[in-house]
Amino acid sequence: MKIALRGLTKRFGDHVVVDGATVEVGEGELFTLLGPSGCGKTTLLRLVAGFYRPDAGEVRFGEQRVDGLPAHARNIGMVFQNYALWPHMTVRANITYGLRLRRLPTVEIAERLERGLRQVNLTGLEDRYPGQLSGGQQQRVALARALVLNPDILLLDEPLSNLDAKIRVQVRSEIRLLQRALGITTIYVTHDQEEALSLSDRVAVMREGRIQQVAPPKVLYERPANRFVADFVGTNNFIPGVCRERREQCSVIETPLGPMVSRAGDDVPAGARCVLAIRPENLALGGAGDNVIDARVVVVSYLGSTLRYDLEAPAGVLLKVDVGDAWHHQPLAAGQPVRVSFPASVALTLPEA
Prior knowledge:
This protein is an alpha+beta fold. Helix content is 24%, strand content 35%.
């Protein structure tokens, strides 16, 4: 089932929470709404679900316009952040609650329950209560409850935020495998950029109610549309400057650290103020490359698979450099001078704002 949001706007009083959101979700796609707390992503999901009525715009499921329909008439499955399980009901009763409201035959309810338990790896736990389950198991119950309704669309609102890190990684992998197996169109809300990149076919980054960029994870990470996206998705170094010369394949940027060469920015003409964005893993220790910077080690952080250096360059410019082979690398000491470099191909030129 395809989803189309066109000019969707929602206000609470004088505050515009969703501001003209326009996006299409393909059939069978796992599409993620990503952004900081308060950016409007959950409100946008609730507009799709039918929990809120938009002040402007429309929602379409396939060819049908549904923004005037109540939630129960949209054939969606919803998984909430806090699981929303009945504590006095067994797993069996929680999963089949919606089926019993629909007055389905007992045999069909039993068949759907069995299939739902199997899909989320909870077979044998149907007579337990939520309080007897781990957080990951409770989230699987909530997912099964949504799936047994045979929804056209699955909506997940920060479903993993209450789980610890290791279980969160495990459950998100299970969600992705299940979604692919079922081929169900899914909209997923999260503020966790790693979660969004690892799960999604495409991601929409939101800020203050507006969609900043929609792209597959690789494009989002390597070619962010603006500074906000570059800063929110992953870690970036930003060096301010002015575009002195725009060439076909590259730009020459005048910075506090001297002139530097970068990939040409689509929205940065000659004379415009801009920033260079360089990922920490694309900065190398040593002086070879199109751009070379002398700096001083401030902090060394061991991150397991990576060693991260926080460096101070002239003019108060701060840089982060990641060394991937931490096992064989001899760490530099705090205060030690160091030279770093990067090729023009890894430096993205973005508008200043």
